[in-house]
TrEMBL record:
GO biological process, one term: peptidoglycan biosynthetic process
Protein name: Glutamate racemase
Keyword Manganese: no
Taxonomic superkingdom: Bacteria
Catalytic center residues: 76, 189
Protein family per UniProt: Belongs to the aspartate/glutamate racemases family.
Length: 271
């Protein structure tokens, strides 16, 4: 199947986290149509086994291929860590595949040599050791300190990040010894840009935060351009938002990011 430049960009995550990346993609590439899949029925991914995340990811890739997507962006660190190679092999020549980890690693290689860099993410992302391995492979003297922060994604997904209780949870994670000496902190979960201000406040603005959304959007643009697949004219198709289960918080966040007129479509992965 030949890939068409006017086809949509497929983006997926367990829930609302990937919307932070989708928003940047749309900002940078306003001509493109996006098809977003939020796997709300299986959220959170971060606590699931690698095999389960791989099964969900391949199933979603299948949906996005059926939607004729020219590129699949795995807008989830947990799925990028557990299933990138598998999704790539599965999709083969039907679409391009991008993850959210490689663009951040190459950004660190360009701008943060010799630093002590912290990473916070889900259990899957941290225990997979993917960031550590890729950063060590750069060989630029970056010391990585990783910390799993499993309560944060469900807290954000449920909208609790706007309440006072979240301040204590954030402080109890970020105060851990692992993050004592860091100069830079990678937000290794696409949900975390939604608590960026609370994190900066905890560190009194003394560290640099790396929010992958913009860097990832840029690598999507570069890859499409390299392959001659950037949409030449503005699409007339509406963006689509598919969810494996309907949740109020997903709908609210999507409206906040993409405007009141959006409609969620329920798309169960297994019937
Ligand atoms: N937003 C996801 C990530 O980047 C998943 C969070 C979760 O579902 O646990 O890891």
């Amino acid at each position: 199947m030949a890939i068409d430049a006017q086809s949509p960009i497929g983006i997926f995550d367990s829930g609302i986290g990937g919307l932070t990346v989708a928003r940047e993609v749309k900002k940078l590439l306003p001509n493109e149509q996006i098809v977003y899949f939020g796997d709300t029925a299986h959220l959170p991914y971060g606590d699931k086994s690698t095999a389960a995340i791989q099964a969900y990811s391949v199933k979603i890739a299948d949906v996005l291929i059926k939607e004729k997507c020219k590129l699949i962006l795995i807008a989830c660190n947990s799925a990028s860590a557990a299933a990138f190679d598998l999704v790539k092999a599965y999709v083969a020549s039907k679409a391009l595949v991008v993850n959210v980890i490689d663009p951040v690693v190459s950004f660190l290689g360009k701008h943060h040599n010799g630093e002590t860099v912290g990473l916070i993410g889900t259990k899957q992302t941290v225990t997979s050791g993917v960031y550590l391995q890729k950063v060590n492979n750069l060989g630029v003297g970056i010391q990585m300190k990783s910390l799993a922060t499993p309560l944060l994604a469900p807290m954000i997904e449920e909208g609790f990040h706007l309440q006072n209780i979240s301040k204590d949870i954030i402080a109890s994670y970020l105060g851990q010894t692992e993050l004592k000496e860091i100069q830079t902190l990678v937000l290794g979960c696409t949900h975390y840009p939604l608590i960026k201000n609370q994190i900066l406040e905890f560190f009194n603005g003394k560290i640099e935060l790396i929010d992958a959304s913009e860097t990832v959007a840029r690598s999507v643009a570069d890859l499409l351009k390299f392959n001659g697949l950037l949409a030449e004219k503005k699409t007339t198709e509406k963006d689509k938002f598919l969810v494996s289960d309907y949740t109020v918080s997903f709908e609210e966040t999507t409206k906040l990011f993409f405007g009141k007129q959006i409609k969620l479509q329920k798309y169960p992965l297994w019937e």
